[in-house]
Fold:
Amino acid sequence: MPTAGAKEAALVQRLAAGDRAAFEQVYHRHNTSLVRVATGVVRNRATAEEVAQETWVAVLKSISGFEGRSSLASWIFSILINKARSRAKREGRIVSFDGAGEDDNLAAAFDGRGRWKNMPELWETLTPERILAGRSVMAHVNAAIEALPPGQRSVIILRAQQGLDADDVCAILGISEGNMRVLLHRARLAVRTALDGLM
Amino acid sequence: MLSCQDVATRASALIDGELGTWQTLQMRLHLAMCKGCHRFIGQMQTTRDLTESLPAADAQDEDNEDRISAILSQLYEEKPDSG
Structure:
């Protein structure tokens, strides 16, 4: 059995050789997440799709220079982040991912002694298949992620959906590991609050 | 003794297995006695599992086939200039 690294090296070789099937495989694996991450930065779905497309062109143009020092996914997302940030900068916005100035809004749930003001509910029957307020649970989860600020949104997509290593996520977004954990926790709290409001 | 707020703040670290032995023990002790925190940690685990089960892959629909073709044609148009 080839190792994951050997499989990826073979995939990179096929991409460099212009193999369309290899490109389709990589595209289908990452494009949805690329657009989701970019939307958080450029704040517009149509622009995010353009940024993702520019990213793919850049990936294919420079794939022969990919040295495998990070995973292929990390490399692709780094290119995307650079392009999305440049686009935001052209519109006069500097986007940072460190979540400075954001709050998790959790303090309001506790009294002065740090005890729950209201007992959390038991979510016994919350499954991906369940329908809440006319939409599947997964549609609500997706909507809650779409509403997150760029740092939290990027971290939860890269970690939870793309399964990238913590080190890779920190390098892509230019944040510390402690910062990344705080952002992931805040992102989950926000999704949890959105779901709790539907129960 | 940890407060409920302390437990909620460390919820992700607990479910991701990032706490040390002593901190994990303190959390478990609190959870054994506190129904609210026990439920909250359950909610956070469900939230983590749901966010991890969102489909990452694109549907292989016609729009995507068109986008893939657009990317490849853009690449071939640009190649002669890029050297």
Remarks:
- The radius of gyration of chain B is 24 Å.
- Chain B touches chain A at residues 3-6, 8-9, 11-13, 18, 35-37, 39-40, 42-44, 46-48, 50-58, 60, 64, 67-68, 70-72, 74-75, 78-79, 82 (CB under 8 Å).
